[in-house]
Amino acid sequence: MKRNSIITTVVAGMIAATGQTALAQSFDGKTIEYTIPFSESGGSAQWANFYAPRLSAALPGSPTMVVRYRPGAGSTEGANWFQGQQDQGDGLTIFGDSGSTKFPYLLGDPRVRYEYAEWQPVLASATGGVVYLPPDLGAKFDGDMDDLKEEFYLYGSQGATTLDLVPLLAFKMLGLQVDPVFGVKGRGDGRLMFERGEANIDYQTSSAYIANVLPLVESGQAVPIFSWGSLDDNGVIVRDPTFPDLPTFKEVCEATDGCETEGVAWDAYKAFFVAGFANQKTIFLPSSASAETVATYTDALRSIVTAEGFKDDAAEVLGVYPQMTGAAAVEATKQATSITPEAKQYVLDWLKADYDITME
């Protein structure tokens, strides 16, 4: 009750400051559906289930929060569904995307029937990811990929225009011979392929890596080789604060013959790295949600991410990454859903040449 009273007071003050007199709404007795466009075994599920109970407790009235899964077509099916819910402005329908949702949008995928500009972001979560190998191949890694270029790799992929675009482009830049097995419904399914010996290279976002891959590392079934890294305040890729002992892809690229960290390929890689990781996951309200509803969610989420102990709890599940609310979430989403024409064309040409994929 005390937390809810504080939230109500703060939101009421924000509303009054904008000339409105309504009080923050209460969700007492309500059920909120939090839809994730992926299966329940991947990093998005870990992220959603981390936030759902906290959001339930922080929103006025402590509503029931139910996480729903709508996997399919690299998450575009779920996003298209949410686009059709844009008249659900009562705050009982929210949506969580991922880089796999942003990428088809950036590339002009014809399956996309959603428009980010119409959605209202209330939380933007940065994340990271780790690439790992089975122990026999991991033993050959010494900071570069030169001794691993003669191997043939199988990789369980959701699709080349999903978040898997980042690893597939990175593998190409490193000169690896990787055959993606397209069609898995989530990165969790890709991990299961690795565990069954059906794939011999994989990556997981930080939350899924911490929960599901670290046990494999500890038991000697997997060897991490590099992370995607993180952005510092100047936009420079640095070591991931969650995995500071692992080199970044940039470091490995610089050490590997033929891999360049400048030029159009690198520019394209970095653009999608930013869209896929610097603001990888976002919670949205539909376009019809009122300013009051948006303010209520924003304050609830701000109270969550600034609460004592949150950073420690988040580090164990999500890793050590920014969790942005309010104007910061809006700006991060704008940056993550835009791309230069040159970077876009490079990726479109690569997708056509390597996978015969066109955005038609």
From TrEMBL:
What InterPro entries does the record tag this protein with? BUG, Bug_dom1
Keyword Signal in the entry? The reply is: yes
Which family is annotated? Answer: Belongs to the UPF0065 (bug) family.
Name of the protein described by the UniProt record: Tripartite-type tricarboxylate transporter, receptor component TctC
Give the originating organism. Answer: Puniceibacterium sediminis
Superkingdom to which the source organism belongs: Bacteria
Signal peptide start-end: 1-24
Bilayer-spanning residue ranges:
none
The record's keywords, sorted A to Z, are: Receptor, Signal
